[in-house]
Amino acid sequence: LFPYTTLFRSQYVPDPEDDYYKELADATVEDLTYQVEWRQESRYPDNSDDTAYLSITYPAFTGEKQEELDQINRQVKDMADRYIDYYESDGEVVSVMSYVTLMQEDRLSVACRYEVTGKTKIYRVEALTFDRTTGERIDNDQLIEVDDSLPARFRAQNEKQNGSIDFLDQLSDEDLIGYLTDDDSRVAFLTPVGTEIGFNYEIGRAHV
Alpha carbon 84 to chain centroid distance? Predict the structure, then answer.
């Protein structure tokens, strides 16, 4: 589950020795054969009385194997732009903050935290993980080990990491597996601490 926090850069520095992953945070590395550049897009409506606003922060990668990195960049930008229509068509306030949650020579994970406010309320996290050497996406099925023990493992880790969450406590094991196997709701990404998995639901987010 992903507890809501404001769209600011975290001061948390993930460490492999941490007991658990505390919150979305960058884990960028400088001494690799590729680098990250942060880009930011902001838009305001022409009508000064309109409260609509768009702010998107996302990474772009450059370095060796640029063709593969360009393939990654396109997918990351598409993810960051997912809710742009809510600004362009519906006049909503759309804020997107991206995080490079793992940056290694062979693997790369990027997560986006979305906040849409106005007539629509959306608070959501999505993520993509890549084989950096090929530019190909690593599917969630390769990151989440789904078996009969998953609900118990997820609940135990959530209790340690987040405490009690009513929505999760009320889910049956069958429904929980449903959330964690549905790509419309589930989220998975890599971090220095390990693999982070969770799901989005109508009133929030959950992760362990």
Answer: 16
pTM to 2 decimals?
0.88
Query: How many Å from the N-terminal Cα to the C-terminal Cα in the chain?
Result: 6
Q: Look up residue 2 and give its two tokens.
A: 């992903």
| One-character DSSP codes across 94-121 | EEEEEEEEEE-SSEEEEEEEEEEESSS-
pLDDT in tens, 81-135: 999 988 877 778 999 999 999 999 999 999 999 999 888 889 999 999 999 999 9
Residue with tokens 């790509």: 183
